[in-house]
Amino acid sequence: MRFRARNYEEEEAAVCLPRQPAQHHPLGSTVPPQLSQLQYLPLQVSTAVQHFDEVPVDPLRAISAQDSLLCVPGITVQERSCPQSVLNGTLDELAETAAKDWENHRASILRRFSSNGTIKVSAPLDILSKQLKGRGKFSASAHLQELDEMRGGANDDAEIISQEEYVFRLRELNDNIADAWKNNERVATLRLAVKVAKLLSDTSTPRFYPTLFILATDILETIGNLVWRRIKGKAELDDDGKLIKPLPENFTADDIRQEAKDTCSNWFYKIGSIHELLPRIYLEITILRCLHFLQKDPPIQEFQRLNMMIRGLGDPLASAYARLYLARKGQSIFPRETGYLIVGLDDYLLLYRRVLSGEFEKTIAKIGIDKKSYVSLVEPIFDLYLQYICAFTNKEELLFIMRTFCEQQSGSNVKEFVPVSVLMHYLLRQLPAAVVSTKALDLSRILKKSVDISKPQYLNYRLLGRKLCECHPPAELHLPVLNDVWKEVSKFTDLVEYLTLADVFVEYILQCSSDNEMHALLKDIVKHLKKATPSEEALKILESIVVKVMGNASDLKGFLNMPFFTYLLDKLHGETKKSVQKQILLFISRQNQYLGDPIERDFVFNLSKSLYKSLDSLSSEDEQRQFARLISRFVQLVDFKEDVEQHLLFLVDCRGTFTTMDPVKEAVVHISNRLAVIALRVAKGKLNQHAVDFVKSCVTFNEITIPSLENVLKRILLYIASAEVALINGLISHSESLLKSLLACLQDLGHMHDARNEKFAVELLGCIQKLCSLLLLVPGQPDLGAFYLFRGLVDIIDNELRLKEPLKIEMFLGVILACNALSQDSLPYHVDSLEMISNDELFSGEPWYAEQLAQLTDMVVERIKKASIAGNEAVMACQIFAIAFECDVGDDIHEHYSTLARAAIPLLPKNSRILKFID
Amino acid sequence: MALELKLRRADRVYKPADVIDGCIIITTTSPISYQGIKIVLTGTATLQPSLRSVGVLESLYTSIKPIQLLNKSVQVDSTGKFNPGSNEIPFHLTLDGSKGGFGGSLPDTYHGAYVNIQYVLSAEVSRGYMLKNLSGSVEIILESSRGKIPRLPGPSLFVYFYITQDTQKHSLLPSIRSGGFRVTGRVMTHCCLTEPVVGELTVEHAAVSIRSIDLTLLRTESITLNDRMVSETTEVQATQVADGDVCRGLSLPIYLILPRLLTCPTLSFGSFSLEFGLAITITFEAEISKFHAQSDSTTPKEWVINNLSILLVMWLILLCLNFVGDTLR
Asked: Cellular location of this protein (chain A) (predicted)?
C-alpha cells in the first residue's frame, strides 16, 4: 500500500471559515442609558410601603436602552392588595378576608399551645336554663347560692377527663346546636350557645385554654352565621316563605323590612338578658355583625362599649382571649378602625402588669402552672393587636402608637414606667425598618429597661438589630446606638443569648461601622468565651459569626492577624472546628489569589492536615469530595515565586500528608509538570546541569506519584502529560519509561475493567487517541525498531483490552492515521526543544524505516480486515482509509476498501465520493 | 269547629290609637249559621297581695277586685253562614282609652309578680239560641309611645353614688372593714323603655379581692289593701358587671337592657303603683377566719338595703339606687 501524502497547511486553510476583522465590539454601547427609563419597583413584602429608587444595573439591558423593544416597562407597586380593595368591598368580602387571615392565626395558636393533659370539668357545664328568664323572688340566699355554684364551688362532683374527650364533647355540643337550629328551636340554640360561652369562663386548665378558645369560638361563629342568615332570610322572604326581593350586594339598614329588624332586635334583647358577663360579651360579639341590619353606621360605639365591658373580666386569661375575639370580629367588620384596639390593649396592660408584678401568684400556683408559661399563654393577644393596630398606619400614627405604649403617660400613677417586654417585641416586629432606624436610640433605651418574664430581652435586641441591618440608622446615630446596645448586651451571662446578639450586630457593624468597632466587638466576644465553655448551639452561632467576618475580609492575612481567630481555633473542637476550617479554605479558593506568605501557607497547611485527619470511614462521600477539592485548590494556589525547588519539596510534603486524596495528588502532578516547564523557561537556552537535574527530579516524582492514584483513566492522562513534559525537556529515556509504565497500566487495565461500562470505554478511546498523537513525537530506538511503542499499543488493544469490537476498530483507525502521519516527510508537529528530534528527522531516508512502518500498518489493516464492520464504523473506516491511503484500483488496499464501502452504503449520502470507488 | 284569631302584626305590639286589624279564622266541617260576630277588647289590672304582707288566711278571703281599664267591643257581622272549610272574617278596631274612665292614657302591658296588666282581644260568634258560641282570644301587648326623652347634655341627669364599707348598715367581715373599699359610679335614672339603662361603675379601691359585681333590677309593686299600702320588692333580672378581681380605677360600663313584658313605665294608679330600682351587689372573696368558723357551706350574712329613691316621671322608668355590700366565703 501507499500512504497518501498530505499537506497540512493546505488542509487547514481549506476547512477554515471565512473571517473578517470587526470594526468595534458588537456588544458595546454608544450612549449610557438613563436610569429613570429603567425604574421598576419591586413588590413589597413588609407591612409599610417602601419605594426603591435604585436600580440594579443589568449589563445586557444597559446596553440596549436605545432599543425600545427591549426596555423593561415600569411595573407599578402593588400595595397589600387584600385590604385596600376589600375595604370598599361588601361586608361579605370583608368577612371572608378576615376569615382567611384568622385561619393563619388560629393555626398558629393551636400549634403553639397544644397540650395533652387532663381537664377538670365541673358540674356547672349543665346549668343553663335559668339564666334567660327573669328571676323570681329577690332573695339573698338563693342568689348567693347560685353564685357559689356557678363559680365551681361544687368541686366534689367535678370529673377529670382527657383533652380528647373534652373536644369530643364540644363536638357533640356543636351537633346539638345544629340539630336544634334545623328544628327551628332557636331558644334551645341560644341556650346551648350560652353553654358554650360559659365554658370559656373556666380557666382552671390554662394550657388548654387557647385550644378551648379556638374550638368554642368556632362554634360561636357558626351560630353567628346561622343568625345572620336567618335575619337575612327574614328580610328577603315574607311570612309565608315566598321571596319578596333578594337583597343587593351592599345593602343597608334601609333595605330591611320591619319584621326582620324586629327579629334582629329580639336577638339582641335576648342576649342582653344573660346574667353572666362573659357569655353575654361573647354572644354579643358573635352577633354584632347583625347590627348592620339595624343601623347604617358601623357599630363603633358598640365596640367601644364591649371593650369597656371586657374590663369587667378579672381573670387575665379570660380577659385576654375575650379581647382577642373582639379584635377578630372587628377585623371582619371594619379593619381600619384602631381606636378601640389601642384602648383595649392599654386596658389589658393594666391587668397584665398586675400579673407580672405578682398579684396573681396564688391563683397561678393553684392551677398548677408556672408563671412564665402562664404569661406566655396570652402572647397571641399582643401579636394580633399590634398587627391590627399597625396595619394601616402611616408614619405619624406609628409614632403616636409608639409614644402611647412606650412612654410614661401623664396621668398614670405608675412610678417608674417600664414598658412590657412582650409588647416591645411585637411592636418592634410590626414597625417598619425605616421607623425603627430613626428611633433607634430611643428604642434601645426602652429595651434596656423592659426586662420581665414575658419575653426574654435578647429576642427584642435581636429584632432591633435585624431591623437596623435592614435599614441603616442615620449616620450620626450609627455609633451611639451600637454603644448603647452593647453596654447592655455585654452584661448578658447566658452565652447563647449573647452570641445570638453578637451575630446580628456583627452584621450591623459590617454594614455601618468600621473595623475598629469590629475589633472591639471581637475582643468582647473572646472575653465572654473565656468565661464559659460554649455549648453546641453557641458553637454554631460562632461559626456563623466567623463566616460573616470572613466574608468581609479582603485577604487571609487580615483576619489571621485578629487574635479572635487564633483564640477561636484553639477553643473550637469537633464539628464546628471542621466547619470553620472549611470556611477558611472556601475563602481562600474564592479569593483565588496566590498564597505567597510562608506563615499563611503553613497555617493553612496545618489546617488542611487537621481537616484531612478528621475524615474517617464514617465521613460521607460528599464531604470527602469537598475537602479533597478544597485542599487541592489550596495546593494549586500556593506560590513560591521562583523557588522551584522549595516548591517541589512542598509538593512532596503534600503527597506524604494527603495520601488518600486523589485530587490532591493529581494537582500535585500537574504542578510538578508546571515546575519542570518553568525551570526550562528560566534556564532558557542554557540548559545547565542544575536545571536538568531538577527536571529529572520532577519527572521522577511524577513517576512515583502517578501509580498511587486510584482512577486508571486519570493515571493514563497524567502519564501522557508527564511524558510530554519529559519530551519537552529532552529527557527521552524518562519519557520512554513513563510511556512503558502507561502501557503496563493499560495491560493491567485489561484484566480488571468491565466491558459493559460504556462511558469508561469511550473515555479510554479518547485516551488512546491522545496517546497515539503523542507517540508520533517519540523517537524510536534503533535496536527495538522505530515503532516499538506503537506495536506494543496495538498488541495491547488487540489482546488485552476487553472492549467491544467497534471501539477497538476505532482505536486501530487512530493508529492508522498516526502511521499515515509518520509516513510524511515532515511530521505535522514537533517538540519545541533544541535536543528533541523526532522520527522524521532521525530516520528519514532510511529504507528500513519505511519497511517497518509498512509492517506495522499491514498488521493493523489485517486486524481490521478480520473484523466485520458495519454501520458508522464502516463509514468512519472508509473515510480514514481514504485519508490515509491511496486507494486506486491498482492498489492492494483497494479490495479491502471496496468491501468497507459496500458495507457502508446504507449510511452514505447519494453523492458521496466513496461510492465512486465501488464497482 | 274551631275559631282562631290572627292579627296582622306578628309581634302583637300596639300603641294607643293604633288600629288593630286581623281576621277571625273559623274552620268547620259542616256549614254553620251564626247570628253575630263580636270582637271585644278588654284590659284588666289584677292585683294579688303577697303572702308575706297579708298572711295566708287573709289572702284566702281577701281578694281585690281586678280593675277594668278598657272594655271595647265592635260588631263585625250580624247574621250569616259559614261554609265548610276555612272562613276568614276580617276586622279592625282602634285602640283608644276613651272608655277606660281613668282620664289618663292606658298603662302598658305588664306581667309582674303581684300586679298584672293585661289586654286581651277576644272574638265571639253567637250561634243563637241553645247553641254553643264559638270564641277565641289572643293577648295583645300595649306599649305606649316610646319616644326619646330629650336628653340634656352633661351629667345633670346622672345620679352619682358611692359604696364604701361605711355606707353599709350590716356587719361586715373584719378583713373587709379594716381594708376598706370604695366603689363609685353614676347611673342615668331617667330613661325610656326601649333604651338600656346606662351608667358607669368604678372600683376605686378594694383591699380584699372582688369576686363579682352584679346589678339587680328590682320592681316594687304597691297595692292598696284595706286602706293601707302593701309593697313588695322583687327581683326582675340580674346582670353581672364584673367577674373576678377587676383592675382598680377602670370604669366599667353599666348597660342594662330592660326586659319587655316585665317592665313598664313607672306609674301609680289609685289602687296600685309600680316602681323600679337598681341594686348593686358586690361580692368579695374573703376567707372566714377561725373566729367566725363555719362549715364549708356558705352562710350569707343579712342583707340590708339602703334606699335612695329618686324622682319618678311619667312614662319613664326611674331607678332607685340601692347599696348592698356583702361578704361571702
From this structure: Endosome
